[in-house]
Amino acid sequence: MKIFKTYLVKFFCLMYPINKRVLRHLLIRCIAALEGGQHYSPAIRRLFRQYHNISVGMYSYGGCFRPGNIPEGTVIGRYCSFSSDICLISANHPLESFSTHPFFYNPAYRVIDENKIRSTDLVIGNDVWFGHNSIVLPSVKNIGDGAVIGAGSVVTKDVPDFAIVGGNPARIIRYRFSDEKIREMKESAWWEKDIEEIKNEFIHR
User: CA 87 to CA 129: how far, in whole Å?
Assistant: First the structure.
């Protein structure tokens, strides 16, 4: 049965280059089901690196595996939780140009020959939680470990480690832990361990 699942995953991966959104969503769901869920699937992570230039750490799940939600060049840590409807934006219409219309900055419209805007490469730490309808704008380059992005938030600047942010524009509401506890969490780097290594620690807390 395990060998059959392995070959089936390989077959679905071979189909992934067919650039049809509905098909790709279906393939991701099938592969995840065969590999124990998005949290555990190495094949989905390989596909996202190869075809979308998106790096997703182990055990992260949710909207990070919906092509179109996450821009190319994004790096996502481990153990992150994404609502299915999050939106990360890597570039804006240029405000300095004489027009904000994509004819004048996007070569895909075949009016100009080169891209006139620069995209932001976003780095998301470990154990970050993105609530429903949260949006991250191109001005953001880093979201720290343990951060929480509240539902409906519009994030316009970098988010520190373990900060809870919310609102439009998002502001720091509070930190999840004291400064001392945050230092301890960062030093422990528990997210670098596999779930099998740390589950007993959590069970006995």
Answer: 13
CATH tag, 54-203 = 2.160.10.10
Q: How far apart are CA 27 and CA 12, in angstroms?
A: 6
pLDDT tens for 29-62 read 999 999 999 999 999 999 999 999 999 999 999 9
Are 126 and 144 contacting, i.e. CB atoms less than 8 angstroms apart?
no
Residue 54 and residue 46 in contact, taking contact as beta carbons nearer than 8 Å? no
Conformation bin of residue 184: beta by default, left when phi > 0, alpha when psi is -120 to 50: alpha
Whether 25 sits among the annotated catalytic residues: the reply is no
Catalytic residue among 25, 39, 52, 93: 93
The distance of Cα 85 from the centroid of its chain, to the nearest Å, equals 12
pLDDT (tens digit per residue) in 1-12:
778 888 899 999
- The residues that bridge with 164 in the sheet, in sequence order, are 148, 174
How distant, in Å, are the alpha carbons of 80, 81, 117, 153 from that of 129?
A: 6, 5, 29, 12
Given the DSSP bridges, would you call strands 171-175 and 163-166 parallel, antiparallel or unpaired?
antiparallel
Domains of the chain, by residue range, sit at: 1-52, 54-203
